[in-house]
Design a protein that fits this description.
Layout lengths: L2 H9 L16 E4 L10 E4 L4 E4 L9 H5 L2 H4 L3 E2 L2 H11 L13 H11 L3 E3 L2 E11 L17 E12 L5 E14 L8 E2 L1 E4 L9 E3 L4 E4 L6 E3 L4 E3 L7 E5 L4 E3 L2 E10 L5 E11 L1 H14 L4 H17 L8 H18 L6 H18 L3
Parallel strand pairs: 6-9, 12-18
Antiparallel strand pairs: 1-2, 2-3, 3-10, 4-10, 5-6, 6-7, 7-8, 11-14, 13-16, 15-17, 17-18
Helix pairs in contact: 6-7, 6-9, 7-8, 8-9
Length: about 375
C-alpha cells in the first residue's frame, strides 16, 4: 500500500482496507521510480508495456510545467486518452461514459491505491490528471501546441464515491472531461497522467567468445609472450567489460596455464569461460623437430644422422640440473651445421631454413644464444 492510499485511509471514514492487488488486474504491479529504493511511485502495466507515474507527483503544475520538467527528462510523457482507456480496461473500470448502472467501486479504489489520489471530499476520493490530448481529441505535440500555447485540456478521471447514505451504494468510474481546465492552469486537485515504456529487464549474461587452446614454443627460459583476443556481446549492453587473467601479452611459463575470463554487463550479469595456453619447453620442441625431420622423407642415412644429433641434444637436457646445459647447445649446433651442409643436397633451402629456425628456437628456450 503506497503513501497516497495511506493518506486516503487516514482522512476518509468510508475507506476500506485493500491489498495493493485487490480488485486490480494482475497486469498492474507496483514498482519503483528509483530502482531498488522501495519508493513505489510507479505502476507497471505489464500487458501494455507502460510505466505510469503516480499522479500526485505532478499536482499543481500546468501542462507546460510538466512537459518541460524533470519527469519528461526521465523519459515520461503525457499518456494519450487511448492509453488511459486501456489502463482503465486493465484495471477493471472500463470507460462507459459514466454509466453508474454498471459501476466498479472496488476496482476504482484499487487503481487509485496504485496511482495515488489527488483530491477528496466527504464521501468522495478521486485521481484527476491531464492527458496527452486536447478537448477535441487531438494528440498534443509541440507542433500543434508549442510551449506557451494555451489549449482546452482533456482530463482523465478516476472517481470513488460513497452514496450509501442516499441509498445508491458505492460508485467507481474511470472517465474523461474536457473544456476545463485550460493547459496553462494548475491546481492541487489534478496532476498529469504520465507514462513511459517499460525498460527491458536485463537478466541475461553476456556471451563470451574465447579462442581455442593456444600452443606456443618457449622463446626464453621464462617461457613465451602470448597474445590472444577475447570478446563479448550482450543483448542490451553494447559494451560489456571483459577481463582475463593472465592478461593477453603476458609471459607464460613452460607448461599449461589456464586463462580465466569474465564478461560483465551494465546490469551486473556475469559470464565466465576458460581456455588454456600451453608453452612448449626445449624437450617438447626437440621432439617436434625430430618429427619434422622424419616428415621430410630424406635419405635414410642423412635422416638417421640428423635424428641422432637431436636425440643426443634431448638426452643432454637431462644434465641441465648439473650445469651441463651447454652440452645440449653443442649438440644442437652440430645438428645446425649438418643441416647447412645438406642444404641444396638432401634438403631443400626451405626445409633447411625450417629446421634451423626450429633448432634456434630450442636454443633460445634454454637461454643459449
Amino acid at each position: 500500500m503506497n503513501f497516497y492510499f495511506r493518506r486516503i485511509c487516514a482522512s476518509m471514514s468510508f475507506c476500506v482496507a485493500l491489498m495493493a492487488t485487490s480488485g486490480v488486474n494482475a497486469a498492474l504491479v507496483n514498482t519503483d521510480l528509483v530502482s531498488g529504493s522501495g519508493d513505489g511511485l510507479v505502476t507497471r502495466d505489464t500487458d501494455s508495456g507502460l510505466d505510469w507515474l503516480d499522479v500526485p507527483l505532478t499536482t499543481n503544475q500546468t501542462f507546460d510545467q510538466v512537459r518541460t520538467g524533470s519527469y519528461y527528462q526521465q523519459g515520461f510523457r503525457h499518456a494519450t486518452a487511448d492509453e488511459l482507456r486501456t489502463l482503465f480496461m486493465h484495471a477493471g473500470i472500463p470507460d462507459d461514459g459514466y454509466d453508474i448502472s454498471v459501476t466498479h467501486p472496488t476496482e476504482a479504489q484499487a487503481i487509485m491505491t496504485l496511482l495515488g489520489m489527488t483530491t477528496s471530499s466527504a464521501g468522495r476520493s478521486s485521481t484527476y490528471g491531464f492527458t496527452g490530448n486536447d478537448y477535441f481529441g487531438n494528440v498534443v505535440t509541440t507542433t500543434n501546441y508549442p510551449i506557451g500555447a494555451q489549449f482546452s485540456a482533456l482530463l482523465g478521471k478516476i472517481d470513488f464515491i460513497d452514496l450509501t447514505a442516499a441509498g445508491l451504494g458505492l460508485i467507481g468510474e474511470g472517465h474523461f472531461t474536457g473544456g476545463h481546465p485550460f493547459s496553462d492552469q494548475a491546481d492541487p486537485s489534478y496532476g498529469s497522467f504520465l507514462v513511459r515504456p517499460v525498460s527491458p529487464v536485463d537478466a541475461a549474461s553476456p556471451i563470451l567468445s574465447i579462442p581455442a587452446d593456444i600452443t606456443a614454443n618457449a622463446t626464453s627460459p621464462s617461457g613465451a609472450t602470448v597474445s590472444y583476443v577475447v570478446t563479448a556481446t550482450d543483448s542490451i549492453d553494447p559494451h560489456p567489460t571483459v577481463n582475463c587473467t593472465p592478461a593477453s601479452g603476458s609471459t607464460f611459463p613452460v607448461g599449461t596455464t589456464a586463462i580465466a575470463c569474465t564478461a560483465t554487463d551494465a546490469s551486473g550479469n556475469i559470464a565466465k569461460a576458460n581456455f588454456n595456453v600451453r608453452v612448449k619447453g626445449a624437450l617438447d620442441q626437440i621432439s617436434d623437430l625430430i618429427a619434422l625431420v622424419k616428415s621430410f622423407n630424406i635419405k635414410q642415412g642423412i635422416e638417421s644422422s640428423l635424428d641422432a644429433k637431436l636425440q643426443n641434444a634431448y638426452d643432454a637436457l637431462y644434465a641441465v640440473s648439473t650445469g651441463m646445459i651447454g652440452n645440449a647447445g653443442n649438440k644442437l649446433d652440430s645438428f645446425i651445421n649438418e643441416v647447412h651442409a645438406q642444404t641444396g643436397k638432401a634438403l631443400t633451402t626451405a626445409q633447411a631454413n625450417q629446421l634451423i629456425a626450429a633448432a634456434n628456437s630450442v636454443k633460445a628456450s634454454l637461454g643459449i644464444l
